[in-house]
Amino acid sequence: MKVTILCASPRTDGNSRLMAESLRQGAVGSGHDVGLVELHAVMNGLLRDCRTCRRPDGRCSIEDGFADLVHDHVVPADAVVYATPLYWYGMAASLKNFFDRLVCYVSASYPRRGEVAKGLVGQRTGLLLASEESYLTAGLGVIFQLQEITRYMHQEFVGAVAGVGNQRGEVAFDPADPLAAAERLGAEMFTRHYSDYWLDSERPNTVWAAPHGCRREMGPYGDV
């Protein structure tokens, strides 16, 4: 399977990049094809008013590497993982810019819109978040935003790993061992359980198989 990691930190040796390398190691170890893209090296323009800068054929007129990023790395991927530091309790600007500019490639006027939309739907996604704060909900805004984005695109948001550190590489000393967690997420990217139920969803009575010899009876609200 193909995994694309999008790194949003302007530092190529920062903590979020270190977590991304760990995830890549885990995914490669499971036999997957993994590519890593530094977003700040690909994009040099912000989203503009598409009514004034869209070309007559519907293509974006911003001349940088974003189109190649979308068509060569994101659309063909079976999973996309976002690695970002926490800036002002949100994602880094380059990652927000990635999502902002993606709108031009899923709009009805874009000539390859069908190809892009088809490629995005069904992908598995993950998040690697580096912050100097151990405050439990510091990164909740990023997780919530990605959850809403992935649900909009009918993707499966299978996991998030948070690492605490400030100086370059300091995340390696986080007692929670986020590097190992990121490596495990990479290894389990396509096997990790995912569920997102609706009221009318058909679903089994149990999430995990019961241990051998253990009999479980389930009622409408859980174990009985």
Automatic annotation (TrEMBL):
NADPH-dependent FMN reductase-like domain ranges (all copies): 1-114
Q: Is Aminoacyl-tRNA synthetase found in the keyword set?
A: no
State the InterPro entries in the record: Flavoprotein-like_sf, FMN_Rdtase-like_dom, ISF_SsuE-like
UniProt keyword terms in alphabetical order: Flavoprotein, FMN
Which named protein is this? Flavodoxin family protein
Organism of origin: Pseudonocardia acidicola
